[in-house]
Amino acid sequence: MGARSTEHATRDAERLSNTTDGRQQRSDSPQAFPVNTTGRIPNHAALSGLYGKLRQHNRREKQVARKARRIEANNTSTPKLATAPRQVPKTIENQRVRDETHVKDMDEEVVEELAHDEFAKHFSDVTSQKVMITTSRKPSGEMFRFLENIFSVVPNVYYHARRAYHVQEVIKHAVARGFTDLLVFNENRKFGQGAKVNGLLHVHLPVGPSCLYRLSSLALTKTIRNHGRATKHHPELILNNFSTRLGHRIGRMLMSVFPQRPELQGRRVVTFHNQRDFIFFRHHRYIFELRKGIRQYDQRESDNSTKSVEYTQRSPEGRKPIEAVDRNPEIQDAPERITSGRSSCSGDGSSFRARLQELGPRFTLKLLSVQKGVFDSKHGEYEYVRCRRADGNKFDRRKFVL
After folding, report:
1. Angle, nearest 10°, between helix axes 2-20 and 44-74?
2. CA separation for the pair 190, 174 (Å, rounded)
3. What is the three-class DSSP state of 3?
4. If DSSP codes are grouped into helix, strand and coil, which group holds residue 335?
5. Residue 380 DSSP one-character state
6. DSSP states of 62-95 as a string?
């Protein structure tokens, strides 16, 4: 009985395929393949063969549609400029839901708010940054290796041993000695599996605010492929996608850790890139080169340490084109260790490109809470506490707070 049913199924599949095969019937109409054709066949082998022919038919329909669009674009009055409209894929970023806190333009209210916030003295050069760094109790060796990388990134930073002091006692000690910011790095307690840095408490002194972050995806400088050696020059700062009121506040707080007078001869740049409320920290060194008579193209590397970034042409005297970069002995490394960036070609065949080299470290921050004033875990007043239900992320992944 089973053999007879299989024979009938195979005969039905052959009959359907003879009526719908492209070699028998060269028709591009939707009726060439019935919608429920594959649902009538109980035999798996016959069903697989017919399904393959159905996919081939769909591919042929797409080819015919692309050819028709190409012919229509070429028949326009200006065929060189006529191109088919580019289809932009839908992503969470370009489909983001904007709320009332989104700052599209710097209106008078936003400018007035930024001019009188807790960081106004720092950006008006009234005070200079002075940062204290401490850790959780009983720090591990992994924590001290991470702090060595932080010392190479943040200028004018000092370490204070935590011992058995509470955070409030450390804050009073820092305020009495004129520090402007306090960074407290935390790590887990699983020493049997290896300690891991997993948190950051940033307190702006003397009046706050205080931000608590979750720190993840940490990669130290020595673990980064083709890493460079950082210098003592003040870095430039790049902040991306901090577009809400809270995002502006967090961005200015991160910028207050660094001096506002970058030393361009050091060619160092620190980037805080916000994407889906995750703040990615990167530290690079760049160099501009003008190669005459050599036409360069964009190079895309598969390694995670390579970044293709297009910068504005600039020199220490200002933003203007430069043909050569002075080689400082302190920042000169092997040229083959510097990764290639994006280039732009001129009419004479010469190319001007920026090359990047990652200095490290790299890590990711996730904002957990923002507290008014200095940190107080018992009686503090919070401006923001991460909650998926309150943020809207529990019901809509396209809503972000930064």
Report:
1. 10
2. 30
3. helix
4. helix
5. P
6. HHHHHHHHHHHHHTSS-TTT--PPP-PPP-TTTT
Least Cα distance to 341 among 374, 299, 290 occurs for 299
Q: Give 158-221 as a DSSP string.
A: EE---TT--HHHHHHHHHHTT-SEEEEEEE-S-TTS---EEEEEEEETTT--EEEEEEEEEE-G
pLDDT higher than threshold 60 for residue 5: no
Residue among 255, 327, 319 at smallest CA distance from 289: 327
Residues shown for the chain: 402
Q: Is 359 exposed, middle or buried (0-12, 13-18, 19+ CB in 10 A)?
A: buried
User: 330-353 burial by CB neighbour count: b if 16+ within 10 A, else e?
Assistant: ebeeeeeebbbbbbeeeeeebbbb
Structure tokens at 151: 């010392």
CA 252 to CA 52: how far, in whole Å? Answer: 58
Spatial distance between the Cα atoms of 198 and 367, rounded to a whole number of angstroms: 12
Q: What's the CA angle centered on 75, arms 71 and 79, to 5 degrees?
A: 105
- Predicted pLDDT of residue 27: 43
Strands 131-135 and 157-159 come out as: parallel
Does residue 268 or residue 14 have the better pLDDT? 268
Sorted by sequence, the CB contacts under 8 Å of residue 72 that are 6+ apart come out as: none
CB 62 within 8 A of CB 96: no
- Per residue in 274-331, pLDDT (tens digit) is 999 999 999 999 998 887 755 444 433 333 333 333 333 333 334 333 333 343 434 3
* pLDDT tier for residue 83 given thresholds of 50, 70 and 90: low
User: What single letter denotes the amino acid at residue 117?
Assistant: D
pLDDT value for 342: 53
CATH number attached to the domain at 108-391 = 3.40.50.10480
Average pLDDT of the segment spanning 201-214: 94
- Cα 169-172-175 angle, rounded to 5 deg: 150
Q: At what angle do helices 245-255 and 108-115 cross, to 10 degrees?
A: 30
- Map out the domains of the chain as residue ranges: 2-74, 108-391
The pLDDT tens digits of the residues spanning 84-130 come to: 577 888 888 888 888 888 887 777 888 888 888 999 999 988 889 99
